[in-house]
Amino acid sequence: MPRVIAIDGPAASGKSSVSRGVASALGFLFVSSGHFYRALAWGVARDNISEATLPEWIERSPLEVERTKEGVRLLLDGSDATPHLSDPEVAAKVSLLAIFPEVRDLINERLRALAATHDLVMEGRDIGSIVFPETPFKFYLDASPEVRARRRAGEGAVDSVAERDRIDSTRATAPLTIPKGATVIDTTHLRLDEVITSVLGHLQKSGAFPAISR
Q1: At what angle do helices 88-97 and 33-47 cross, to 10 degrees?
Q2: Which of 123, 163, 168, 172 has its CA 20 to 30 A from that of 105?
Q3: For residue 156, is it left (φ>0), alpha (ψ between -120 and 50) or beta?
């Protein structure tokens, strides 16, 4: 059966970079659940979808997933959403969009479909708690709010880490939490390669990944 390594954590904790590194070391497919939410947020902004019409739009939304060398490409109505994932209007809408159960149900369905055919390293905010609670390979990355805010600013992002934390932690549907059984890694004072090595070390100790090249 395909394996899923779940890497969760708040904004700018290092999830994406660490997940890419772990996926590369293992030869697994890297998937960011946040990209799925951003793809839909781009569609909502592009089509000027209101809260009232969102459920109907989601129901007919043709969100397609294509495998690429780098991971996956997301298509919305046949258009590649990738160039738009960091657009300011997308950043402004993504956390608000994620509170809707219809949105989460659609995305979770797509994520689970990928796991049926691929070994995955998947990062997000509810991968180990909601999307794949049964996986034994769970990690939760964190860092101080100050460090995460500096990282976010260094990426050129315009959204507020504190506001993202508030929305993600208090939403009624799938709030950000440490998944049961997850290994917690504080990345505040660690380099990227050190975090990747730590994750790979834990995986190797599990006995399910006996030959990991680092």
Answers
A1: 110
A2: 163
A3: left
